[in-house]
Design a protein that fits this description.
With 374 residues, the protein is an alpha/beta fold. Helix content is 38%, strand content 13%. It is built from twelve helices and ten strands. It has a seven-stranded mixed β-sheet with strand order 1-7-6-5-4-2-3, sandwiched between helices. The protein has a three-stranded antiparallel β-sheet with strand order 8-9-10, with no helix packed on it. Helix 5 links the parallel strand 2 and strand 3. Helix 4 packs across helix 5 and helix 10 packs across helix 12. The protein is globular, with a radius of gyration of 21 Å. The two termini are 25 Å apart. Pyridoxal-5'-phosphate (PLP) binds next to helix 4 and helix 5. The site of pyridoxal-5'-phosphate has 14 residues, from helix 4 and helix 5.
Length: 374
């Protein structure tokens, strides 16, 4: 692994593009002239409004310095810390930030298995935990895995409603993605969380947002992002410092303007993989995703690690996200087995989707996979 990280790839998994320096020049001067560097200045307000416009559906956006601070703020705002139940339902097949945020706020992640088609937390597995095993929970944090909209999102909303708990959706890699009904991610559950880290489809460097249809929740989240302060400067809510600064917001505005064209190109790469690579399962609904990368599940008997190695030898970077799954890390080990998660984590592979992926690269990937199939 260390060797892989050190090597330089001619086709890295992620190759973010950023606005040219001269394009940022005027924004930088405007920020210096205004003397507003953070605390909901004009660039943050414009970026927030642009996010709301982009997603539509009457959502309110609250910006954050990262998706992880956004997740923690959402936990503070939506999960009752006085609840007798201490478990929060979460998939293990996810980025660690969700389970870590649950633990940081004094709750216990209760891992739920995924389904093998969308690779998202499985509402049927959750129903078994809640109904058959009668586990009480304080909240639910699910992920839209790899930024792709879960096809069973309504079932999750129904379940959260039935048990009267918040449904926080970690859509970190999914700004620009849509659910199967064509609506943009950002308007489902109690709220949805997005990341603008350099590796995400809408890249700022560091940044995040919570989107929700509940304007009162948005207002509470905005206060929580600023130490829980009210307008009179008194802290009446729990808080943290999660604000997005003006320089970051200025980059975000420019990146958002180019997002749709970028996604069209990424979807064309996804289609090319679909045509070229045989005998694998592509993630359901990926064709409506922002596709920061393309993830697929190799057939049983294909040597995934050998494929990753063969591609590395050709200077093409592929990765094993999210493997090993979180429930097997030392931090959270000890829970019940998760058969689907443990099958998928050994077969999943994520491939580059950026503009550097030429037809020759797609061909090389298809060859590498077919050569390692038994
Ligand atoms: C990237 C990612 C995060 C973390 O986002 P940050 O903005 O880096 O804090 C959390 N959850 C998922 C699913 C992610 O992909």
């Amino acid at each position: 692994m260390a060797g892989e990280r050190l090597m330089t790839y001619s086709v890295p998994l992620i190759a973010p593009s950023f606005p040219a320096a001269e394009d940022m020049d005027g924004d930088y001067r405007d920020i210096l002239d205004s003397g507003r560097f953070s605390n909901f200045g004009p660039f943050e307000r414009a970026f927030r409004a642009a996010l709301e416009d982009h997603v539509g559906q009457s959502v309110s956006a609250v910006t954050f310095s990262s998706a992880t601070t956004a997740l923690q703020a959402a936990m503070l705002a939506c999960v009752d810390r006085g609840s007798a139940a201490r478990d929060v339902l979460v998939p293990a097949f996810t980025f660690p930030a969700g389970p870590q945020s649950i633990a940081a706020l004094g709750f216990t992640p209760r891992f739920v298995d995924i389904e093998p088609v969308g690779l998202h937390a499985d509402p049927d597995a959750a129903a078994r935990i809640l109904k058959r095993d009668q586990v009480s929970i304080a909240g639910i944090v699910i992920g839209n895995s790899f930024g792709t909209g879960a096809h069973h999102i309504s079932a999750w909303e129904d379940l959260a409603g039935e048990f009267d708990v918040a449904l926080i959706i970690d859509s970190a890699a999914g700004f620009g993605s849509a659910y199967e009904d064509g609506t943009a991610l950002g308007a489902r559950g109690t709220c949805e969380i997005f990341s603008f880290h350099a590796t995400k489809p809408l890249a700022i460097g560091e940044g995040g947002a919570v989107l929700t249809r509940d304007p009162d929740l948005a207002e509470r989240l905005r206060r929580i992002s600023n130490f829980g302060l009210d307008d009179d400067g008194v802290a009446r809510l729990p808080g943290l410092n999660g604000k997005l600064n003006e320089f970051a917001a200025a980059i975000g505005i420019r990146q958002l303007a180019g997002l749709e064209a970028d996604i069209v190109r990424r979807r064309a790469v996804h289609d090319a993989y679909r045509t070229a690579v045989a005998d694998v399962d592509f993630q359901r609904n990926a064709e409506r995703s922002a596709l920061g990368f393309v993830s697929l599940v190799l057939s049983h008997g294909t040597d995934r690690d050998a494929v990753v190695g063969d591609l590395a030898a050709r200077a093409i970077e592929a990765r094993r996200y999210y493997a090993p799954a979180v429930h097997r890390s030392d931090l959270f080990a000890g829970g019940a087995p998760l058969p689907v998660t443990e099958d998928i984590e050994g077969r999943v592979i994520s491939l580059p989707s950026h503009r550097g992926v030429t037809p020759a690269v797609v061909e090389a990937v298809a060859e590498a996979i077919s050569a390692r199939r038994s």
